[in-house]
Amino acid sequence: MSNTALIPSDGWPVNRLILAVTAFLLLTGNLTFAGVVLNAYPFTAATAAPLLSLALVFGGVTVLLLAPFCFGRSTRPLLATVLLLSAAAAYFMDTYGVIISDDMLVNVAHTSMAESAELLTPRLFVYLVFLGVLPAWFVAKVPLRRSGSRGEVLARGRLLAGAVLVVIATLLAFGSFYASFFRVNKELRQHANPVYYLYSAARFASLSLRSGNPGVVQPLGTDAAIPVSDVTRDLVIMVVGETARADRFSINGYHRETTPLMAKQNVVSLTNFRACGTSTAVSVPCMFLLNGETRGHGRIATEENVLDVLQHGGVHVLWRDNNSDSKGVASRVAYQDFKTPANNPLCNPECRDEGMLAGLQQYIDTHTRGDILIVLHQMGSHGPAYARRYPQAFEKFKPVCRDSDLSRCTREEIGNAYDNTILYTDHFLNQTIQLLKRNDAKFETALFYVSDHGESLGENGLYLHGIPKAIAPDTQLHVPALMWFGKNFRLIDPADLRRKSAQRFTHNNVFHTLLGLFEIETSVYDTGQDLLHPARPK
Q: What is the DSSP letter of 392?
């Protein structure tokens, strides 16, 4: 029997199935894309034709992305996978207004199962079933016509050539529109499903391959040393906040009293502090790397960071984590996981940030010599389940949203729940300061708090975070930063620091500020980037 006899003569041509899947994705997975486009280009008689032509352009690009891989037995699994992924992408874009960028994929890769579980909602199930599972089942069951290897190559070639011609012809026909679309409003294409997330996935894979061998770490600041003249011991606690917005801190002028305890402490609030990214996976490594904002966070696996430099200088470093993990920052320092009841005494069932203070005094007491840096990585205000982030006693602002599907809640309920998380952070920071005060007799003590990124709470239809930095709203980049100094901390003049508190600082300043707090001398320390340097007593 010849091989041709095994090839079904009836059924759908593969090209038709590719086009059908493409059309389905355009019609069902791009509600958000259509919304942002119509917001930028309102539908009128003049814009009708170019707006409708977007279906040809992005449909053609989708075909160009799918067709080269649809051969033989790969066709059904590939198309089914794209349908399922596109259904999930449509849900997150339609529900939270997020963009599936490579930075977002980095964040997803570092998200814990517990955090992922909060995003599992009935609405997600509906999207997956009707936009993913059912069409994928159709793809698996529809009879396909095969035409042999040579015939398949020719068929895909014709489809690809046709897609290229359609895209080019459309771009030429509406040249002025697309000049604006791709240059003036280039962020609009980031909502295209599946085009943009497939591009982001390819970019994410490329960046991962280029990150190098994680086993080879480039040393940094090995010349670090504490000057002989520094005979006092320093105890610094750095709190890495999570998803906190500067404009929701009453100490920064917010109309609700969300930080009443910080208002009573002698803290300095740096009111113009900017994050270097809009996700934990980007911002946390960025703030501890040398020039992380300008050189990229991807070096965290291959290059030492400021914690390593401090250890080179003889500082004892401890990282306690109540978030998913340190994103690679604490790979070479003492690390303790406080997302588990085994370490955190305040888990019922959510493990509270305040639990990270348990046993800290014993840790401090065991180190009878040398300076100490303790980093506390908060769960903070992580969404969408804001109401789970604080104990019931801190539910001051009501009513609150208790649903992970924010579309079921009002803006007021979401904002109330979020503000309660800030109120609990205020309590946690106050408890941390109290611990530092109890050690004033033996140390020069200081607290440094800065959040990793902010959060969108429904402004302009956006929720959560992770929007690419170039187009991210200020709510996702403007983060709170606070500093407190104990009564014996003579290195800093708080009055001078207050006078510069409105100056613009970024996560880039964290690296050098931590070195400055411990008076570390090293070739990688830049006084110009130490936000405390001009505030030192003269």
A: G
Q: Which of 7-21, 180-194, 333-347 has the highest mean pLDDT?
A: 333-347
For residue 341, whether the previous peptide bond is cis, meaning omega lies within 30 degrees of 0, is: no
pLDDT in tens, 259-297: 999 999 999 999 999 999 999 989 999 999 999 888 877
- The domains found in the chain, sorted by start residue, are 3-210 (no CATH), 234-535 (3.40.720.10)
Paired strand residues for 376: 239, 320
**Cα dihedral sign, 205-206-208-212:** positive
Mean local confidence (pLDDT), 428-442: 97
Give the angle 423-428-432 at the CA atoms, nearest 5°. 145
The H-or-E segment that residue 198 falls in is helix 195-210
Tell me the two tokens of residue 527. Answer: 């006084």
Residue owning tokens 């992770």: 466
What pLDDT score does 180 carry? Answer: 77
The pLDDT of residue 214 is 54
Residue with the two structure tokens 């990150």: 211
Mean pLDDT over each residue of the chain, to the nearest integer: 91
Query: Three-class SS string for 420-479?
Result: HHHHHHHHHHHHHHHHHHCCCCCCEEEEEEEECCCCEECHHHCEECCCCHHHCCHHHHEE
* Cα 210–Cα 199–Cα 133 angle in degrees, nearest 5: 120
Taking the model in full, what pTM does it have?
0.79
φ/ψ of 403, rounded to 5, equals -110, 135
Band (pLDDT 50/70/90 cuts) for residue 394 is very high
Q: Output the six-digit token pair for 34.
A: 């259509």
Structure confidence by residue, pLDDT tens digits, 418-431? 999 999 999 999 99
**C-alpha span between 248 and 244 (Å, rounded):** 8
Q: Are 308 and 220 in contact (CB under 8 A)?
A: yes
Gap between the Cα atoms of 457 and 414, Å rounded: 7
Residue 175 to residue 198: CA distance in whole angstroms? 25
- Whether residue 531 contacts residue 506, with contact meaning beta carbons closer than 8 Å, is answered with no
Largest CA distance in the chain: 95
Q: How far apart are CA 51 and CA 111, in angstroms?
A: 37
Provide the 10 A C-beta neighbour count for residue 14.
Answer: 24
3-state helix, strand, coil in the chain (%, to 5): 55, 10, 35
- Give me the mean pLDDT over the 155-178 stretch: 92
Backbone angles phi and psi of 303, in degrees to 5: -140, 140
CA dihedral 16, 17, 22, 26 (to 10 degrees): 100
Helix axes 48-66, 14-28, angle to 10 degrees: 130
